[in-house]
Amino acid sequence: LSGGYRQMVGYGEDEPLYDATHSFVGVHPEDLPRFRESSQALLDTQQPYTIEYRVFHKDGRVLWMRSHNVLFPSSATGPARIYSVIQDITELKRLQAQALQKLEGLPLAAGVYALESAQPSILLENRLMAAWKPPAADAQTPAIGMDQVLRLRDCALAGQCALDVPITLRASDG
Q1: Which residues neighbour 170 within 8 Å (Cβ) at sequence distance 6 or greater?
Q2: pLDDT by residue (tens digit) across 98-115?
Q3: Strand ranges (DSSP E) for the chain?
Q4: Fewest CB within a 10 Å sphere: which of 12, 64, 86, 126?
Q5: Which conformational region is residue 109 in: left (phi greater than 0), alpha (psi within -120 to 50 degrees), or beta?
Q6: Are 122 and 113 in contact (CB under 8 A)?
Q7: Among 96, 93, 114, which residue's Cα sits nearest to residue 104?
Q8: Nearby residues of 144 by Cβ (< 8 Å), 6 or more positions away
Q9: pTM, whole model, 2 decimals?
Q10: φ/ψ of residue 103, rounded to 5
């Protein structure tokens, strides 16, 4: 393992941390099955993957890591190798937990979403939002477009109308 990783988990270059018979030393036991499955899938499919998991620091603290993993196939002189770029995301996880705690305190359904792709991903959701099921579009909740949602928002912010009815977006608007 690299000196950078060793430093992240509190071990010096001369201290034992890893050997070929214990390749997942330090990974949190609850994350170990998922970590092993992902690593085996990489060997089987050669498809790179990213995983977030916990490890133990030398001083006993639990750290969160994000690892981007790629397989370099075997050569005539040696076996295939997995190369990883590992980030310590402990502070990010702490901030996410704080944000979720604040979201949970809201008396309404709320969430934070990544909209970079055609299929938005959930970054954080409170329990109310996670349990919410959108109503089917009918005469009482017609499907509307994003442009109309923004006009409704502006109207509500100006205090000229209330937003206390369900809104269903057209599929093309997400």
Answers
A1: 143, 144, 145
A2: 988 888 887 777 777 776
A3: 49-56, 62-72, 81-88, 111-114, 121-125, 143-144, 168-169
A4: 12
A5: beta
A6: yes
A7: 96
A8: 167, 168, 169, 170
A9: 0.64
A10: -60, -40
